[in-house]
């Protein structure tokens, strides 16, 4: 589920936090890294639970209307279309979702007002009113309304974003990407799917888990060696004046280029230049680009970069390519 871009960011964040703490315990820091990654998976399930909670909020509203001393005709005969949403019913019954929620104690039980406020916002939207009054009852219509809510409402509901960031500091940079993964998951649902419908796994495959582990360990173990390379190629710039975030980004880029023979140099360079745009100072990506370009030229002359298969050493040049990966929200 988690992209390699996000895995790289997770490594960067834990290394930066570790630098500030001046920790010397690699095992503890690695545990923190994987805890951070696991929290992203928690967020994935939190988001999948949102449609269920919205339906429950609507059902509470309907029950409150029926309990009025003087119920209106609408209170007496409420529109239950949203309550009977077929995609939400599938989510309620999904065995993997129920198991994860039970085992990891994730859920919105402590935030009924937030869910109520979100639903109150949604129910006033024209597209939702049209859905509720549409005479066409189909699985596709039910699925479309849930996807519309996740795509058009969740990213812009500030109260939800603030709450998620309060719930976990590890989610500050994850929300956009994990939301996109939840949406991608629901798009795969079909009416014929039963309760055993699989959700996304934490890692796309075992290679991704090995990638993040190896990347972290190589930067931790070889940072002095990488710093020497950076220092030699940082022309007219004193090493101790380089921002620590820039150093860490370059260390990670070097670890990836030197230790991962199947990843093309151009891919690694582009990834870390893009990360620098989001996580370092305004002009850092230009500076990092120049230093890494010089280092790659040096390492090529020294035959230090070995790539296999299609991962050949490309020319460096401009790194501002479109990767198609998630980017941190500005």
Q: What's the helix and strand layout?
A:
Blueprint: H1 4-21, H2 26-66, H3 73-76, H4 86-93, H5 95-104, H6 112-122, H7 126-133, H8 139-152, H9 158-167, H10 175-187, H11 206-233, H12 244-259, H13 265-279, H14 284-301
Question: Characteristics of this structure?
Answer:
single chain, 65% helix, N-utilizing Substance Protein B Homolog, Chain A, mainly alpha, 2 domains, disordered C terminus, 330 residues
Overall morphology: elongated
Low-confidence stretches: 315-330
Which sheet architecture does the biggest sheet show? none
Order of helices and strands: HHHHHHHHHHHHHH
Please give the alpha-carbon distance between the first and last residues: 22 Å
Oligomer: single chain
How much beta, percentage-wise?
under 5%
Helix content: 55-70%
Report Rg: 24 Å
Average pLDDT for all residues:
89
Q: Structural class, from secondary structure content?
A: mainly alpha
The number of distinct structural domains comes to 2
- Count up the helices: 14
Counting DSSP E segments of at least 2 residues, the number of strands comes to 0
Can you characterise this structure?
The protein has 330 residues and is an all-alpha fold. The chain has two domains: 4-187, no CATH class; 206-301, NusB-like (N-utilizing Substance Protein B Homolog, Chain A), CATH 1.10.940.10. It is built from 14 helices and no strands. The protein has helices at 4-21, 26-66, 73-76, 86-93, 95-104, 112-122, 126-133, 139-152, 158-167, 175-187, 206-233, 244-259, 265-279, 284-301. α1 crosses α12 (244-259). The longest helix is centred in the first third of the chain and has 41 residues, at 26-66. The two termini are 22 Å apart. Mean pLDDT is 89; it is low at 315-330.
